[in-house]
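Blinded run. Sample ID left blank on purpose so nobody reads anything into the name before looking at the predicted structure. Input follows.
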Amino acid sequence: MTTEAPRAPKIRLTNLVPGYLGDITPEEFLEGMEFTDLNLAEVESSQATYLDCSLARVNFGASEEPADLTGARFSGSKIEDSRADTWTMPRGSFIHTEISGTRIGAGVFHDSVWEKTTVNNCRISYLNLRGAKLTDVEFRDCVIDEIDLDRAKVNRVSFPGSTVGVLQCEGSTLGNVDLRGLQPHKISGVHSLRGATIDETQLMLFAELFAHELGITVE
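Blinded prediction complete.
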């Protein structure tokens, strides 16, 4: 059986108008706007919609004062060369979106929806995707210290050129998830890896991890 690859996002950004900090408010509908060199510390943008927008060199806030993007929706948008000590966006969504060159300390995205989204050349310390739904998502050339997919529903997701230190997938549902090339030093929820694809080298490398997770003693 061939593992299906993620389907690429479709993004067409033309005739963008400049966006300013004052435009970003709760439940605001932002369309065709370009936000550059903004500091969103303590900004509230919950339930806002970013449609066909570009965000470049944006600071999503320090860990003590993150922007509140709870329930925010990004569609047909690009986020480039940005940073966030803590990116707080539970129950939000990325649809037909590209995130590139971005540094994230803690990404709080539990119960979110990701569809046709590419994450490229990003550095992420902790990615909380508990209870999230991911479909057609590619993490390309990323360094992720820990990714938490507990109870997530994940379909057509891949990690080409990426590294992951800790993989959590307790109670997750996987389909067409391509883990080839990854060498995490810890895997939690081995019994939930049904639907994932690994290579023969990984099978040998993960043998000890699998045995430990399943309570098997190897002597």
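Unblinding after everyone has recorded impressions. Residues 17-157 form one domain.
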